[in-house]
Specification:
By secondary structure, the chain is an alpha/beta fold. Helix content is 44%, strand content 12%. It has 9 helices and 6 strands. The chain has a 6-stranded parallel sheet, with helices on one face. Helix 1 packs across helix 2 and helix 1 runs antiparallel to helix 4. The chain is globular and about 50 Å long.
C-alpha cells in the first residue's frame, strides 16, 4: 500500500447525493430571487460548505440569504435523502475490501455531521464509519478549498499529511488536498476530468481505487 491513510470525501464519492442536493439548492436559490441552474450549482457549490453559498450570493447580489436558509435547505435535503439517497456504485465493496486489508481510512466532508449521519444511515455506510472516522467542516474554521479539514483529519488519525491520499470529486476538494500536501485521486463519475486539474490520478469507477492504491 502506497499510503498509510485514505481520506474520502463523502458527497459524490461515497453517497450519490450531489444530484439531489444541487437540484434542491438551485431550486431554492431561484425561489429566493437568485436564478440558479443545476449546472450553476454544480460549478459554484459542489464540494463546498454551505457558508460558500452565503458568501457568493452576497458578493454577487449584495443581498443576504434569509436567516433560516440553512435550516430550510437542510430540511429539504434530508427529506430527499430519506426518499432517494443511494451509495455510490462500488462504495460498499471498496470499504469492505479496505477493512479486510487493514487499510486505515476516514472521511472529511464539507457537509455537517448531521448531514453525513443521515446519509450514512440511509445507505448503510454507517457500518463502516464510527465517530472516530468522520470529520466535517464544522470541526475547523475554514472549509475546502482551505487545507484545514484534511490536515485536521490526518492529525486526528495520527498520520503525516505526506502519507495520506484523498479521494475527491470536486475542484475545491482537489485544491484543498494539494494545499494540505497530500496526493489526491480525482473521481470523474460526475466531474469532467479537466475540472480536477492537479489531481495525482484520475479514475471514473470507484472499484478502480483498490488497484490504484496498491
Amino acid at each position: 500500500m502506497r499510503y498509510d491513510l485514505v481520506i474520502f470525501d463523502n458527497d459524490g464519492v461515497l453517497v450519490d447525493s450531489e444530484p439531489l442536493s444541487n437540484t434542491i439548492l438551485a431550486g431554492y436559490l431561484t425561489e429566493l430571487g437568485h436564478p440558479t441552474s443545476y449546472e450553476d450549482s454544480l460549478r459554484d457549490y459542489m464540494g463546498a460548505a454551505v457558508h460558500r453559498v452565503h458568501d457568493l450570493i452576497l458578493e454577487r447580489s449584495g443581498e443576504r440569504l434569509p436567516a433560516d436558509f440553512d435550516e430550510v435547505f437542510h430540511g429539504r435535503v434530508f427529506a430527499a435523502f430519506e426518499r432517494e439517497l443511494k451509495p455510490v456504485d462500488g462504495a460498499l465493496e471498496v470499504l469492505e475490501e479496505l477493512g479486510a486489508d487493514g487499510v486505515a481510512y476516514c472521511l472529511a466532508s464539507s457537509g455537517s455531521h448531521e448531514r453525513i449521519r443521515v446519509g450514512h444511515r440511509k445507505t448503510g455506510l454507517d457500518k463502516y464509519f464510527d465517530e472516530g472516522r468522520v470529520f466535517s467542516s464544522q470541526d475547523v474554521g475554514r472549509g475546502k478549498p482551505a487545507p484545514d479539514l484534511f490536515l485536521h483529519a490526518a492529525e486526528r488519525m495520527g498520520v503525516a499529511p505526506g502519507k495520506c491520499v484523498v479521494v475527491e470529486d470536486s475542484p475545491l476538494g482537489v485544491r484543498a488536498a494539494l494545499a494540505a500536501g497530500m496526493d489526491v485521486y480525482g473521481f470523474t463519475a460526475m466531474t469532467p476530468a479537466e475540472r480536477l486539474e492537479g489531481a495525482t490520478e484520475l479514475f471514473g469507477d470507484l472499484r478502480e481505487l483498490i488497484g490504484l492504491l496498491a
